[in-house]
Amino acid sequence: MQRLKRKNAKLFWALFWVFWGLEGAAWALRLAGEEHPWLLAAASWITILAFLPLLGAGVIWRRRLQCPNCHDRERSGSVRLNPKKTDCCKSCGQPILFDDQI
């Protein structure tokens, strides 16, 4: 049985949370920048650049975290970090295991 690499799931979550961190920073700059136009410009650029990590997370999910048994990219993916729990593929029904699981 083929297995997924846990580092890909960790990278997915890291990029996902970087996206939300940048969005939060842009939101805070927008609140603080009502009197300073350069803060509003910085917030706009941060908002635009924040979508790069989100795009990277989507690519990793579609290419590296899909079912290794049937390779169905439409329905089955796993980004679970807990090695004690497993997901099952919605297409073939096989468990989606990572390299550190039994």
Helix content range of the residues, please? 40-55%
Radius of gyration: 18 Å
Proportion of residues in extended strands: under 5%
Tally of contiguous helical segments? 2
Neighbour order of strands in the largest sheet: 1-2
Poorly predicted parts: none
The largest pleated sheet is described as: 2 strands, antiparallel
Q: Helix and strand string, N-terminal first?
A: HHEE
**Which structural class do the helices and strands define?**
mainly alpha
Number of strands: 2
Terminal CA distance? 11 Å
Shape: elongated
* Average residue pLDDT: 88
Topology record:
Elements: H1 6-32, H2 37-64, E1 87-88, E2 95-96
Helix pairs in contact: 1-2
Overview of the structural elements:
With 102 residues, the chain is mainly alpha-helical. The chain has two helices and two strands. The protein has a two-stranded antiparallel sheet with strand order 1-2.
